[in-house]
Amino acid sequence: MKYDIIVVGSGPGGYVAAIRAAQLGRKVALVERAEAGGVCLNWGCIPTKALLKSAQVYTYCRSAEHYGLELTGEVRPDLAKIVARSRGVAETMSKGVQFLLRKNAIDLIQGFGRLTAPGHLDVDGTPYEADHIILATGARPREMPFMPVDGVKVLSSRHALTLDRLPGSMIVVGSGAIGSEFAWFYAALGVKVTVVEYLPRMMPLEDEEVSKTMERAFRKLRATVLTSTTVKGVTVNADGQCEVAIEGKKGTETLTADVVLSAVGIKSNIEGIGLEELGIAVERDKVQVDAFYRTNVPGIYAIGDIVPGSALAHVASAEGICCVEAICGLNPAPVDYTTIPSCIFTSPEVASVGMTEQEARERGIDCRIGRFPFTASGKATAAGDRDGFVKLIFDAEEHLLGAHLVGASVTEMLAEPTLARRLGATAHEIARTIHAHPTMNEGMMEAAEAALGAAIHL
């Protein structure tokens, strides 16, 4: 069968690209070997957030007395029911994607897609043709040779989503978004958690002040955080305990735990899809593309986790739209990779966009920093969530370079500084924009005022 556009992979990059192509009047097919919605909807972003919500509710119940409420009986987490709810949420979202595909008359082809020639795709033995083929095959958890994943004792993030019982202890290797979120989830439910990070600080891609704040937050949760620590190997002893050999600030030692979670990054799904046969350029596990996601082979495109850049769902969606609009002759602006919002859904949450203070200093930029702690926020105090801050970074002309937030619901606040950075807003413009009171979002205005030396509440 012949299509205008075939998209391979139905994650947030693939299904969004397919829908946009259909909206522009193209005949579209979407190829998927597993569940509609890809890893994000089924085994990543969405079910993880459902787990985290359950842990947050459990935490609120345990602190009910702080809010003047009296609970009778013991509040206990039921992991089986928590996981069942998470799977139900994922299934609902996957069905939503299937509905959107039907609504837009997109053919969903089940199976594994492999390029056989420019414009030709084989799906489990059935040939298809298209003028344009977009690869959006995503990624999977990366495995390290010294820490082989068996799904029982050494887990990937996918296994951690569906445990049938709470372990007594867990070692999480890696403190990026995935590792930190699972570490917080299990620690909040009472598991003894140790986080091991190779780099000098937790959440190493975040601003240094954010990292320090989150290390304190994890320790407050009674989780252990070991930074500048290398994992040398993982074995299972005769008692069924995981023994993790590490080398860190105290030298070489061995940690023990019931299970180990490997959260050391992701690997692109590019094997066996015909890249080598067609001579498509790949470098360091990433398909090489131009600003509109064209590969070096005409008619073949790539987006999402398999191309260089941030491996985030919303980035893949933006790339998919840009790619399709370029194919359809709409001359879209390239994706602005300097204004990519990033969120980590621990408690407190972490949200950031743009440069960190360290990055700005390293570039020789004369920075003006504005900070506002949530301890000074009326809304945060009333809600009982005073941990965290808003930190805004401006250049000498007062244009916003970056925003870094820690606190309750700050991921919902991130759209304002992202838009402000995209539009080139200044500290004065943010400070003079009236923000509703009482809200956490007032912290944006207050931080901008602080950068101008005009803070009212500090």
Summarize the structure.
By secondary structure, the chain is of the alpha/beta class. Helices cover 31% and strands 26% of the residues.
Lay out the secondary structure:
Layout lengths: L1 E7 L5 H10 L4 E5 L5 H6 L1 H18 L16 H25 L3 E4 L2 E5 L2 E4 L2 E10 L3 E3 L12 E2 L1 H4 L8 E5 L3 H12 L3 E5 L11 H13 L3 E3 L3 E7 L5 E7 L2 E7 L1 E4 L3 E3 L6 H4 L3 E2 L2 E2 L12 E3 L10 H15 L14 E3 L4 E6 L2 H6 L5 E6 L4 H6 L5 E6 L5 E8 L7 H9 L3 H5 L10 H10 L7
Parallel strand pairs: 1-2, 1-6, 2-3, 6-19, 8-15, 9-10, 9-15, 10-11
Antiparallel strand pairs: 4-5, 5-6, 7-16, 12-13, 13-14, 17-18, 20-21, 21-24, 22-23, 23-24
Q: Please, could you describe this protein's structure?
A:
- This protein is of the alpha/beta class and 458 residues long.
- The chain starts with a strand and ends in a 7-residue tail after the last helix.
- Helix 1 (14-23) packs parallel to helix 9 and helix 3 packs antiparallel against helix 4 (79-103).
- The chain has helices spanning 14-23, 38-43, 45-62, 79-103, 157-160, 177-188, 208-220, 275-278, 313-327, 357-362, 378-383, 415-423, 427-431, 442-451, and strands at residues 2-8, 28-32, 107-110, 113-117, 120-123, 126-135, 139-141, 154-155, 169-173, 192-196, 224-226, 230-236, 242-248, 251-257, 259-262, 266-268, 282-283, 286-287, 300-302, 342-344, 349-354, 368-373, 389-394, 400-407.
- It is built from 14 helices and 24 strands.
- The strands form six sheets. Strands 1, 2, 3, 4, 5, 6 and 19 form a seven-stranded mixed beta sheet that branches. It has a five-stranded parallel beta sheet with strand order 8-15-9-10-11. The chain has a five-stranded antiparallel beta sheet with strand order 20-21-24-23-22.
- It has three domains: 2-141 and 267-327, FAD/NAD(P)-binding domain, CATH 3.50.50.60; 154-264, 3-Layer(bba) Sandwich (FAD/NAD(P)-binding domain), CATH 3.50.50; 348-451, FAD/NAD-linked reductase, C-terminal dimerisation domain (Enolase-like, domain 1, 2-Layer Sandwich).
